Amino acid sequence: MTKFHLRPIVTTLCLLLACYELGAREWSKNQQSPNTTSSDIQLRRNVWRDLVPLHSTRVDVERMFGSSKMSHGFNYIYQGDNERVDVLYSAGPCKLSGVERWNVPVDTVIKVMVTPKMTLLVRDLRPDAGKYSRTQDVHPENWVHYWNLEDGITIDALLNDGCEEVISVTYQPSREDRNSALACG
Predict the structure, then answer these.
(1) Number of independent structural domains in the chain
(2) What one-character DSSP code corresponds to residue 94?
(3) Which of 20, 101, 135, 181 is the most exposed place for a label (fewest CB within 10 A)?
């Protein structure tokens, strides 16, 4: 009887240890390489590398990455050393850009989605539990989302063996911007 009750505990401890070891390996890798994804992806307001949705422009983005080699509609894709960056630009004041309308000039950044090229765990980003609400999809059940509507940040992750691996971090208009003159009625 005792063995039966210990099995779930042992399994859980093994999963926790595996997550801990994975995190330690990633930390060690990050210490050896100064230009790592985890240092580039930060959870401060809706700003990534000084790009701010509804305030930055295509010129600001292309100063960092050069011209985009791929696009789909108003979404342009850039390749960084450690990440892929998808940027949605405005079509002009209150014109439909993808699925959003904003009262900003053409080529203004609306949304920045950063997809790390190396393993990054959600816990390494340290999302503030008071600011982020966590939801887990019913299907597929291993998709997890962290939402911070106040600051305009969404983290999408995959749950794998008890660890949440970041798929992307999206920087979008903050609640303040959504309630300002920049929002189209």
Answers:
(1) 1
(2) T
(3) 181
pLDDT band with cut points at 50, 70 and 90 for residue 139: confident
Residues 61 and 51: beta-carbon distance below 8 Å = yes
Contact 87, 76 (CB under 8 A): yes
Domain membership flag for residue 116: yes
What is the extent of the structural domain holding 84?
2-178
Is residue 77 within 8 Å of residue 139, measured between CB atoms? Answer: no
- The DSSP result for 21-56, as a single string, is HHHHHHHHHHHH-SS-HHHH---STT-BTTB-TTT-
Per the structure block, which two tokens stand in for 104? 């900003």
SS3 150: coil
Pairwise pLDDT comparison (44 vs 122), residue with the higher score = 122
Q: What percent of the chain has pLDDT over 90?
A: 65
The answer to whether 65 touches 147, Cβ cutoff 8 Å, is no
Q: Is residue 24 part of a domain?
A: yes
Q: Is residue 31 part of a domain?
A: yes
Residue 151 falls inside a structural domain: yes
Torsion sign, CA atoms 58, 61, 62, 67: negative
Residue with tokens 């003159």: 181
Four-point Cα dihedral 21, 131, 84, 103, nearest 10: 180
